[in-house]
């Protein structure tokens, strides 16, 4: 049986697999790490994810990291704080990676008693066509305005194939008067649901749209017995606690 931390990591691994495949990228999967390489200069989707404290097949990993460096492809490294062993610390130091952020790993045991969505006039639909994807991209990219990452993400979504993404990932867009203002993403794997990309355009924040999207996602789970996992900022964790989520660990991100 997987621990709560392992549920978070395995769901993130599923997300990496799906979103790498959606742009015909390469996923390197080993017993103790996963490397997602989209061949696009985005550290949002190029990622090294640690799965255990032990670093094995180190040469294979270093070849993949050197590929990022030679091709000038930014990438991020995600390590559960419990897995941050001397092996990983040495690798991080060797490649001059710096801590960028820390996320709180959270879990809800099931969605059997999830309350009904309280509507703030947000019209939420699943992305199912090119128009919906463009709306999703508009909100997503707005959070990176003025940065090189925004240009990289523009390339990512230009190469993105919803057909390749598959049915385990469901993307949602929330609109006010046909204007896209919020996004949400639900990923299902064998053991859990994962919630990602609950984003609201800056000018529409503070109106409850993000919470409404979040509660909508909780109501989209088909297997109500499955746990739901997510990663939150220190500032945002209390929002999720109100929905019954509990802290189960910490993820450290290096760039």
TrEMBL record:
Instruction: List, for all copies, the residue spans of the domain called N-acetyltransferase.
Output: 122-255
The identity of this protein, by name, is GNAT family N-acetyltransferase
Q: List the Pfam families hit by this protein, alphabetically.
A: Acetyltransf_10
Query: Source organism's superkingdom?
Result: Bacteria
Which organism's genome codes for this protein? Lysinibacillus pakistanensis
């Amino acid at each position: 049986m997987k621990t709560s931390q392992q549920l978070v990591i395995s769901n993130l691994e599923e997300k990496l697999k799906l979103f790498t495949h959606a742009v015909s990228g390469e996923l390197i999967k080993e017993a103790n790490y996963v490397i997602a390489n989209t061949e696009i200069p985005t550290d949002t989707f190029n990622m090294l994810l640690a799965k255990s404290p032990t670093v094995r097949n180190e040469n294979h990993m270093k070849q993949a990291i050197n590929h990022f460096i030679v091709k000038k492809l930014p990438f991020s490294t995600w390590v559960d704080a419990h897995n941050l062993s001397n092996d990983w610390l040495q690798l991080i130091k060797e490649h001059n990676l710096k801590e960028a952020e820390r996320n709180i790993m959270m879990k809800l045991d099931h969605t059997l008693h999830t309350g009904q969505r309280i509507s703030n006039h947000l019209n939420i639909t699943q992305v199912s066509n090119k128009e919906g994807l463009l709306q999703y991209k508009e909100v997503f990219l707005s959070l990176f305005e003025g940065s090189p990452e925004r240009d990289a993400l523009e390339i990512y979504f230009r190469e993105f194939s919803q057909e390749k993404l598959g049915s385990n990932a469901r993307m949602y867009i929330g609109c006010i008067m046909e204007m896209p203002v919020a996004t949400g993403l639900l990923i299902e794997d064998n053991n859990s649901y994962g919630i990602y990309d609950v984003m609201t355009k800056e000018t529409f924040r503070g109106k409850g749209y993000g919470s409404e999207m979040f509660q909508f996602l909780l109501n989209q789970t088909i297997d109500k017995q499955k746990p739901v996992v997510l990663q939150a900022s220190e500032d945002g964790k209390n929002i999720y606690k109100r929905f019954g989520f509990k802290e189960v660990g910490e993820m450290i991100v290096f760039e």
